[in-house]
């Protein structure tokens, strides 16, 4: 009986055998090199490029670079089109009952709206949907927080929305001064004294250092959830106590609606109260497109709303500051000029560190030179500088302020009876203490380093769908073109599309090579001249060699 192997066989071999294998390998490599020499296999020749002596060299190189860029852009566009088609097919597979004509191209959304709202948004004007959502928030709320930018509180108030809240029934309206760290403390106190005569007012500063909800869930797998430090938030305790006191007097669970114009910080306030980044926030205006319900407590629910729609009858500066659609209607230079005309020129010069200017165009030129915004040829990019100033003015970093009116007059839609009703059931004494504590803890800018701004007063808004102006025919055509994207559902068609893409690339190359501009035609003539010259030199050399022989 054969003994079983207890361990693996050794890989050792004799030196004679190892040297023999190495010799065979060397001989095999030598043989391969000889065959490659006989075949004449050489390295591919490097493109020498256009010689320096050739005329119009720069134009030739520029034309080649442009052609290369066009090809890359075309390839990228075709790749995106194929991805869209695949997404449409996947959507059709998941919903087999839905017709292909009713499908829309898949877009990234904030995850706030339901599927019904997505289908409606393609057919209706989005502004009308915003009006519907805003009405829903007002109807569902027991107490409404109107968020105001502390830099221009009066310009952030909408009389039409406030009138709708008063007419909707027994609802409380509270003003909330957000971004209070961007104005001097003296100015903030003056505005608080002015606004609290009419309505209860809360001083607030939303937090900006909150983590995303998804990131927190990932951390839960590794360790226990730790409470998030909300260091940047100011005024949270005062607002929370105000809502709690109202809930106790109300006797049941309450719903709190948050309304306001774009970019005043509605979603940031909800995130600060929840201590999580639940609502989508960003620098661009109008990110919230539908109502979003967030539960803060068993007794308190807060509702985020889309922005109030600004009436197009307002001034140019108001449209530039309050409306996200103004980027399409108003030109950047016009909008920034309107904003600049209402600001103190001396303080603008100190803030943006530019020399004195006579008109807005000169200011944008100086700002472009200061920030390094240049066009081709070295000329300053005036439009880019106007966009930069516009974005800084509507963002949450630039500090400016306006003085409250010297004499207090109530709004036309308010009277003494309404103002007393709005203050009933709220602990105003405790609110004053909390506001004083918030102002003391805020580190506001100095009065000398801020820009004085002259606002045009209350901003008129639109709350009824009938008052919204119809879209321009060009915008309608664009939307119809986006909605009526056709679907190809065969997998064979996809491969055919790829082949067609390759053919189109080839045709583009041919068209570009034949249909050249005047510069490229001159370049071709120069190249033909060079080639003729080289052939003449070769013929002369050949005649010389025959004569010598």
Account of the protein in words:
The protein is α/β, with parallel strands linked by helices and 549 residues long. Among the domains are: 220 residues, 3-Layer(aba) Sandwich (Rossmann fold); 79 residues, Conserved Hypothetical Protein Ylqf, Chain: A, domain 2, CATH 1.10.1580. Helix content is 51%, strand content 7%. It contains 20 helices and 10 strands. Helix 5 links the parallel strand 1 and strand 2. It starts with 14 loop residues before the first helix and ends with a helix.
Task: Tell me the layout of helices and strands.
Layout: H1 15-39, H2 57-94, H3 115-121, H4 126-140, E1 143-149, H5 159-167, E2 172-178, H6 185-195, E3 201-203, H7 213-222, H8 236-250, E4 254-259, H9 266-274, E5 292-295, E6 300-304, E7 309-310, H10 316-322, H11 326-329, H12 332-341, H13 345-352, H14 360-371, H15 382-394, E8 400-401, H16 416-423, H17 428-441, E9 451-452, E10 461-462, H18 473-483, H19 491-514, H20 518-548
Parallel strand pairs: 1-2, 1-4, 2-3, 4-6, 8-9
Antiparallel strand pairs: 5-6, 7-10
Helix pairs in contact: 2-19, 8-17, 10-12, 12-15, 14-15
Main location: nucleus
Organism: Crocuta crocuta
Biased composition (Acidic residues): 494-513
N- to C-terminal distance: 91 Å
Contiguous runs where pLDDT drops below 50 for at least 5 residues:
98-122, 214-230, 472-498, 504-527, 537-549
Number of H- or I-type helical stretches: 20
What would CATH call the architecture of one domain?
3-Layer(aba) Sandwich
CATH topology label of one domain: Rossmann fold
Given this structure, which CATH class of one domain is correct?
Answer: Alpha Beta
Which strand order do you get reading across the main beta sheet? 3-2-1-4-6-5
**Beta-strand percentage?**
5-15%
Q: From the alpha-carbon coordinates, what is the Rg to the nearest angstrom?
A: 35 Å
Order of helices and strands: HHHHEHEHEHHEHEEEHHHHHHEHHEEHHH
Mean pLDDT: 76
Within CATH, the superfamily of one domain carries the name: P-loop containing nucleotide triphosphate hydrolases
Count of DSSP E strands?
10
The biggest beta sheet is recorded as:
6 strands, mixed
Keywords: Acetylation, Coiled coil, GTP-binding, Isopeptide bond, Nucleotide-binding, Nucleus, Phosphoprotein, Ubl conjugation
GO molecular function, one term: GTP binding
Protein name: Guanine nucleotide-binding protein-like 3
Subcellular location: Nucleus, Nucleolus
